[in-house]
Predict the 3D structure of the following.
Amino acid sequence: MSDTALGHHTGGGTTRDAYFEMVRRKRLYGGLTILVFVVLLVSGFVLADGRNAGGFWNGLSQLGDFPATVVAEAWESRADMPAHLVTYFPALIDTINIAAASTLIGVLIGGLLSMLSTRGLAPVPWLIPICRRIMDIMRALPEIVLALAFIFILGGGPVPAMIAIAFHTCGALGKLFSEVNENADLKPVEGLASVGASWPQRMWLAVVPQVAPNYLSYALLRFEINIRASAILGFVGAGGIGYELKNTISWGQGKFDEAAAIFILLFLAIVIVDNLSDLARNRLTHGGKK
Amino acid sequence: MTDAVMQSEIHVLFRRKRIMALALPFMVLAYLAYVVWTFDVVGLMQRAEPGRAQTLLADSYSYKTHITRSNRTGDWDAAIEGERKGKYDEGVFPAWAVLNDTGMTIALNHGHEVTVSPEGEMRYDVPGFGLITALPTRRGIETNLTPETAPDWVNMSNTRLSITTRGGRVNVTKSKTEVFRYFTGWELFFFTLDSPYHGHSVTEILFGDQIDPTRGNVAGALHDFWMNPMWHHHQVAWAMFETILMAFLGTMGAGLIALPLAFFAARGFNPLRSTRFALRRVFDFLRGVDGLIWTILLSRAFGPGPLTGSLAIMLTDTGTFGKLFSEALENTDKKQIEGIQSTGANRLQRYRFGVLPQLMPVLLSQILYYLESNTRSATIIGAITGGGIGLLLTQAMITHKDWEEVTYYIILVVLMVMMMDWLSGWLRRKLIKGG
């Protein structure tokens, strides 16, 4: 009712009508967007369901079967569990080593690439677009592609996975690092340049101290991601805990107790590393005290 | 503070700095050395097969045509990559292979030439080396080379002779004689040999005479390209779509599930501490179990396919989004909510008009960012669950045969990821900054 009163006060309903017209149109567009989105989602789901080997509703009822079998088998031979955990611990270390080494290589090469592709830091300007495109391609290449190619050449094992993950990490970190570099203060760089420092000296002494905390924080985040990636690559033959998981998880081997041990190891490793890196990153971004 | 104290402090600081500056690179090097040792990189390099890398690289941008003589019947045939789908018709050969009464004459690259007499004697005059002859007989291969005089690009035994030069490759065994000539490019990428449009240019197809009397040129050509039995363009396109579908369904589904749950996990929206805590742990669990394990568990129930992949992405990302959204909710400004409340809005209206507009930028940018990153994950998950371009890629790689197809898929995947990257960036700018 207050609307009508307001309308009369402002002298005529044209403004109000125009306003409500706009509101109506906004609602219509918003509703249409949501409708299109829902239709896309539902039809996509139906399509994916049709292409899948087993249907969704059938599978839903069987969802618990496999975990139940694994848990039951693991429970039956629960006495062996500590032994299994010890058996597969070296494989977990392999997986973590793959992730750590590839993150380290990624930080070193990605850092270099990022400095070569940041305006103001790059030694030669024409390198900037080239390095950026190189990083784009490195980032876009899924790890599994390189891993499979290197498994073909080098044979199975952790090294193909390491190379593949490192390659992707270089691109991903390089992009994040170059964003960090753009916020770096150029005055120290100019200061060092004025006393005749070479390019590596300028980068190492003027830029790295400014960007190191952010670099480290991104590198830790990447390390978490890389642990997952290295577990997945193990599954296609690149060694580590993923490979052991693939061997124990196949049907009819009676090794589900060992698979359960691997599940536990992987889960714990991911949770522990996640939390540790969360803690470290919080300290890095909020300063040591908080 | 006296000068002496300051000086000694500075000395301590400098010493610490010096130690750090040396220790850090040393530690990095030590760790890398440990990795080299523990992964047995040296042994691996010895076992590695660089020849395979060569095959892979050469095959990715070139193809070979096989000209084969059956040494039992004396018949000849020609096939691209030796595949049935690339086979020439009976008695038809490419222009560089001529069959007449004096035998077969095959011109290879760089002016090399191989002739095979009607009796089956292979003669190859290798420039800079000399004539190599080989006659397959019942007892074995009779050749003018001996294992002592054979150069290292010839591989020979009693029953087999294989010559690899820069002109091409010749294999002679008791059962058949094969000559390979290499060409740059991807073979039969548009039309296979059985298509009437093979060998016609674009202008001929678009503006020339009707090539196939039963079909229009453009429609026929498009159909033959799309259904190309060697490259399977329609299957590849479908696989790419499936991969994007997995990423889309997984990300959006996760967002839709995580949004309401995040309200229950955020301080200030759910007063019950215990349910908040429990939900947080559920999110942690979903994230911690990881896509790999979810994929395995789900594929046991739903079988291989894109649905399994989408659900795996959805479960993992529900954990991630739940954590991110609830943190964003805790950071929302309470004043707007109170303002809406003062107009008499109920709880749902308060959330819709007071909270959601604040949350939207975080929500959209995270979802769009994950959509891009999940396209890559969907490729990898597809390789495990058997869906999308990931499956095609692993299949092509595991057969170790068609590396040009692998290259094709890799290029497509890289383009797809770059396109999604661009699209998500564009949408983020449009939606969040309001175009």
